[in-house]
Amino acid sequence: MAYATTNPYTGEVIASFPDATDAQVQTALDEAHAAFEVWRDTSFAERAQVMTAAAAILRRDCDHYARLGTLEMGKLFEESRKEVILSAEIFEYYARNAQDLLKPEVLPVADPAEGKATLVHEPLGIVLAIEPWNFPFYQVVRIIAPQLSAGNAVLLKHASNLPQCAAAFDTLMAEAGLPKGLFRNLYAARPHTAMILNDPRVCGVALTGSEGAGTVIAGIAGKALKKATMELGGADAFIVLDDADVAKAARWAVIGRHWNAGQVCVSAKRLIVADAVYDQFVALYKQGVAALKAGDPMDPATTLAPLSSQAAADDLRDQVTRAMDLGAKVEVIGAPVPEQGAFFQPLLMSNLDEKNDARHWEFFGPVTQIYRAKDEADAIRIANDSPYGLGGSVFTQDEARGARVARAIRTGMVVINHPLAPKADLPFGGIKNSGYGRELIGLGIKEFVNHKLINVVDIDAAF
Fold it and tell me: Which one is the CATH code of 3-232+430-455: 3.40.50.720, 3.40.605.10, 3.90.1170.20, 3.30.499.10?
């Protein structure tokens, strides 16, 4: 069966679940639309009560949800707990701010005779959320919190290796008091994506996933004339300039590359280090990686988790081999990882010059690309030599310089002197092959609403 829980640490198949039937999908669409017709006129205060309740449940039962995340995709238990708390913070953000973010806007007009123009933001219908496995809760909440707060309904197609995390959202939202039909997890089969997006009651799709998946889903949505937001892959640059605090930059690089076992769209995948500090940085980085301890993700002493599945580890290994065939040099760094479980040995990859196409690949796991930059301009050139444009980091002791370099990097997000990490009150999204659209804050809540102009004009005004 497509939907199954397989513990990445033990390899044990815990449970499996059948795909949804066509009839179940149609029932979900019918109930979502009926619920939406009522919910769209429900007050922001009532919607906020549900968001607040959902957050409280996540905080109360944090360990329960965290254990599910660790069981199904293998992340460190403490990282799972932080993800659950972040999810609660997102619910709380929209409970506090949704009404203000969507308040009507009076538009300035050049001539009073043009009328009294107002822009209102109205919900559109059912949003399909297609979400990945690397953040079982956060990825879902950053869609359902804003979209439910805006007055829409949401149907979820979660990753096939997270069936229990996906089902937990049905329980969570029901306990939080969300009316039946407004949210539903569907173990949807592949043909169901087109079935859902072709339904006139569905207003669009929000996808987080691979570049390949984005191409397919965006194509289906486009053919159906439906709005889509795409958060796809990334190969974020982590730039260390010649005036950076090298020791701190190296420590952050270890964390930025290896949290969630390196399976993060905004991981620090490409370390771009100024020539003047390159050797010092690399030595410190290797020391930091060597200190990581791979093991049971439920053990507090573990600092490097297994990958999400054995298939993910095998695919990454094949990708590294192909990069080496193209001329990449690969060095094993860090302590040996356990043979049991879907672990992947940390690697340092270099010799990724203009002749090696592997410099344009995303390595989803603990494989670090390292580049030596001649100077600031060269670092910017290397950073922008990527088909991706999600995030990035710049390390320097001169904040003005950092901001200048950040503006020159062609991505959706840049952080100075820190690895990029999602927050409840900051936007998320990229450009180029990393996708389009934004999630979180006001940008996210306005992705699937109708920005309607209402203009009151004097009946005797000139045409």
Answer: 3.40.605.10
pLDDT, tens digit (0-9, with 9 covering 90-100), for 110-147 = 888 889 999 999 999 999 999 999 999 999 999 999 99
Out of 83, 89, 231, 447, pick the active-site residue: 231
Class of domain 237-416: alpha beta
Domain with CATH 3.40.309.10 in the chain: 237-416
Please give the C-alpha separations between residue 142 and each of 40, 113, 217, 303, 392, in angstroms, as whole numbers. Answer: 19, 42, 19, 26, 21
Least Cα distance to 448 among 11, 153, 72 occurs for: 153
CATH 3.40.605.10 in the chain: give the residue spans. Answer: 3-232+430-455
Give strand pairing partners of 5: 15
From the list 265, 362, 376, 447, the catalytic residue is 265
Residue 203 among the catalytic residues: no
User: 3-state SS of the chain: helix, strand, coil percent to 5?
Assistant: 45, 20, 35
> Is 395 in a helix, a strand, or coil?
strand
Concerning whether 447 is annotated as a catalytic residue, the answer is no
Residue 1 has pLDDT above 80, yes or no: no
